[in-house]
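Ticket #4471: structure export looks truncated?
Reporter: QA, pipeline team
Priority: medium

Steps to reproduce: submit the single chain below to the structure queue and open the exported record.
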Amino acid sequence: MQAIQEITTRPERPIKAIQFGEGNFLRAFIDWQIDILNEKTDFNGDVIMVQPLERGMADMINAQNGFYTTVLRGIENGKEIEDYRKITSVRGCLNAYTDYDNYIVQADNPDLRFVFSNTTEAGIAYDASVRLEDKPQKSFPGKVTAFLYRRFKTFNGAKEKGLIFIPCELIDKNGETLKKYVLQHAADWKLEKEFTDWVNNACDFCNSLVDRIVPGYPRAEAEKIQEKLGYSDNLLDAAESFLFWAIEYKTKSHEDELPTGKAGLNVVWTDDMTFFRTRKVRILNGAHTMSVLAAYQTGLNTVEECMHSPLISSFMKKGLFDEIIESMDGDKSLLTSYAGDVLERFQNPYIVHLLLSISLNSTSKFKTRDLPSLLGYIEKKKALPKILPFSLAALISFYEGTEIEADYLKGTRNGETYQIKDSMDVLKKFQELYSASYSSVKEKSEKIAKAVLSMDSWWGQDLTKIEGLESVIASDLESIWSCGMEKAIVKLMEN
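Actual output as written to the record:
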């Protein structure tokens, strides 16, 4: 079988984007979109990748001349779909650690316009030890500052040679944060005021919100997929078919240069993406956190299993449409259509999303994802919802354990141990609560509900002060511990 690089060619196109990060996500998100732009619009540009860490995939990517195949699969309008695309938009990958000169000279490229990145949430961080003279700077903001300074010098501060940054790291205000650290480096390195002015006036740092699940290399199916394709590809990149990207600009949309709309891509350019961020956190992430801990305790293990369970899928849909969406502001049609997309994505048989993986750090996740919906519902309806308080009770019962080993608390389901992972302070608090003696299930439920809800360091407030919430959660816990999670959910849904 021939290799992908032996049977694939690339048209001559200028390099218009540099990308810090060569992993699965960017290859199935950014580079896939650039490939679509090249096919369907006059964008006519390629991407050069930069490996941001000392170890990475540069050698593998270059061995295939930047070529690889995306494998998109999912559920759309109730039907399973799959799409295979041979990506030709990636020119190759540079290792800034072993080939610094070839990397930094990219700053001199007059065609360069865009900078994309995914250096993990920890990548956009300030490191005061980084210097301009380093080759390379070990931090991502340090690399960006030195790269921009080289470009500023090469083009004598020409405004039209500024760059447009669209980071994809999963932190709030990713573009603004990156810009803040670039300017901090410029100040610490005592770079001239003209450079700072050029960064402020010629470059644009957009905030962005990405939404696509990318499992990456489909190891279990790779041989079968390659037989279907008729060539070998060591960089197969599997992802869901769904894609959404919100890009927040400060002064102007850059869609004239990155024509995502003309290509039919699900990309929104906006001067305020608050609605889209809130929608994702509270609907997609919130539905996960609201449902998975209860579902796991009924014996389920994956999100797909949840969607095939009449009980859990009904629980999730009721919480999603009757409580989460009802708690939110904004266009209801945009909220409900997105919720419909989310439920289809949860049914994707090609993505094995383990409930225990989603359970990691559930206390902080509940505070961010579900507590705003709970509080918003109470404020709007002047009443307590049913599903969201129960999901908090399910969280409390999921965290039941009396023994901490290494970095986890031991939980038990059907006689088998599972790992409860959270901050050690949280785990120790639950260990303390569950190690105490209680005279009855009722007393246990009431005392643990009160103790957990009063942890204002976890929730940002004392939740026992919300009228009726403590008694509802104590009642839900008593139901869970008296008759089991599945029967407790049945009782809840019947009421």
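Status: closed, not a bug. The export was complete when the record was re-opened. Leaving a note from the reviewer for reference: The chain has two domains: 4-272, 275-494.
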